[in-house]
Automatic annotation (TrEMBL):
Keyword terms, alphabetized: Membrane, Transmembrane, Transmembrane helix
Family label: Belongs to the ammonia transporter channel (TC 1.A.11.2) family.
UniProt domain Ammonium transporter AmtB-like: residue ranges: 29-200, 265-412
Principal subcellular localization: membrane
Native source organism of the sequence: Rehmannia glutinosa
UniProt key word Membrane: yes
Name used for this protein in its record: Ammonium transporter AmtB-like domain-containing protein
Length: 441
């Protein structure tokens, strides 16, 4: 019988349902906090980064591409993409199409975790959004904004959902095989990097033709609190050790080879250091050396070097994880008792189980091949489809002028570089050439 003091609540939101036994308030609060921190990387993080690092004439367009992607992905996510990524199985690589707007879906327990689907939806949304915003980094100041508006919902629907379901959903085919993808090396970084270079290449062709810690989710009643705390501490430490080593390696290579330090590049503890050295040196080599020598890469105008810093780095992360994965720590992370999966090749050789280690490496390689193939094909098809409706690439006039030609406004127009514009393409008789002369003055 309902407590009279809660009689004003709707029948479907009585206290026993609003605060079910399976929900842990601490887990729920931390998951929401972690999701918010990831969201801040996009809004305002990448919005400010993109708007501040490009030329002044692209500040508005670049920031707006990121802001639009964040908003558009959210609508797609609650409308159909979340269920396609984490809902009931439709195909081994895709969930059933359904919305996630009903409270009976949102308040239901998310798999075996101690928080509801609403929290899971929000957490997974910010990862989906940042993936699209990373792709935008390769297209800044190049892609037609209308084409970008079409690209975002199409890509999150037909590419991101397949990768997320296959690798992150417990029912996905790669997840069942035992693929290790902690915090998105495959689903976010490799996907965004490959999609970025595919889309950029299509835009170049169009131009020719015209002329962490939230990732550690604890299933209900299966993981001791003290162990969880020790894991989280080690996880945070190793993540930062790897990132710091990577940054220092990149910095050292810049100084040794170019005599100037640049800003653009900036398991177990010992393995994190090795991974940091490799993730700081190999993407540096592909961006600073190979990009200038390989014909295909030279044809791609990747504004923020997304392919090197995300696709190459994401591939390294996935493969090195398959090599260095500690089976004992993996069993704690995935909460499994079997030794069938999650044993790195190095530990497999050391423990006389080289076959299991080779199998894990094979699964990691399969994950790379799947994500690369998926994004090359789907991204190319999406771009070809959009080209039938609107141009992918900005016109030469728009490329020359920038924000004022595309959006009818400019950033820093009152004080940037000490200049003040009283006329623009949209409110004067000045043409594009006249406005460009004003910019040069």
């Amino acid at each position: 019988m309902t407590d009279p003091k809660y009689a004003w609540l709707p029948s479907n939101l009585q206290p026993d349902e609003a605060n079910p036994d399976w929900m842990n308030k601490g887990d729920n609060a931390w998951q929401l906090t972690a999701a918010t921190m990831v969201g801040l990387q996009s809004i305002p993080g990448l919005v400010i980064l993109y708007g501040s690092i490009v030329k002044k004439k692209w500040a508005v367009n670049s920031a707006f591409m990121a802001l639009y992607a964040f908003a558009a992905v959210l609508i797609c996510w609650v409308g159909w993409a979340y269920q396609m990524s984490f809902g009931d199985t439709f195909l081994p690589f895709l969930g059933k199409i359904d919305d996630a707007l009903d409270q009976h879906v949102l308040l239901k327990q998310a798999f075996a975790y101690k928080f509801p689907n609403a929290t899971m939806l929000y957490f997974q949304f910010v990862f989906a959004a940042i993936t699209l915003i990373l792709i935008a980094g390769a297209l800044l100041g190049r892609m037609n904004f209308i084409a970008w508006m079409m690209f975002v919902p199409l890509w999150v629907t037909f590419s991101y959902t397949i990768g997320a379901f296959s690798i992150w959903c417990p029912n996905g085919w790669l997840a069942k095989m035992g693929l290790i993808d902690y915090s998105g090396g495959f689903v976010i970084h490799l996907s965004s990097g490959v999609a970025a270079i595919s889309a950029t290449f299509r835009i170049i062709i169009a131009g020719w033709a015209k002329d962490n810690e939230g990732s550690r989710k604890i299933p209900a009643e299966q993981y001791p609190t003290d162990a969880c705390r020790s894991w989280a501490a080690m996880d945070v430490l190793n993540t930062h050790v790897c990132a710091a080593t990577s940054l220092l390696t990149w910095l050292l290579l810049d100084i040794l080879f170019f005599e100037k330090p640049s800003v653009i590049g900036v398991v177990q503890g010992w393995a994190a250091i090795i991974m940091g050295i490799l993730s700081g040196s190999i993407p540096w080599f592909t961006m600073m050396v190979l990009h200038k020598k390989i014909w295909l890469l030279k044809q791609v105008d990747d504004t923020m070097a997304v392919f090197h810093t995300h696709a190459v780095a994401g591939t390294l992360g996935g493969l090195l994880t398959g090599f260095f994965a500690n089976p004992k720590l993996s069993r704690l992370f995935y909460l499994v008792e079997t030794w069938e999966h999650y044993i790195g090749l190095a530990y497999g050789i050391h423990e006389g189980r080289a076959g299991a280690g080779l199998k894990q490496m094979g699964i990691q390689i399969l994950g790379v091949v799947f994500i690369v193939g998926l994004n090359v094909v789907v991204t190319s098809l999406i771009c070809l489809l959009i080209r039938l409706v609107v141009p992918l690439r900005l016109s030469e006039e728009e490329l020359s002028v920038g924000d004022d030609a595309v959006h009818g406004e400019e950033a820093y127009a009152l004080w940037g570089d000490g200049e003040k514009f009283e006329k623009s393409v949209h409110n004067s008789v000045y043409g594009v050439e006249d406005l460009e002369l004003q910019h040069k003055k």
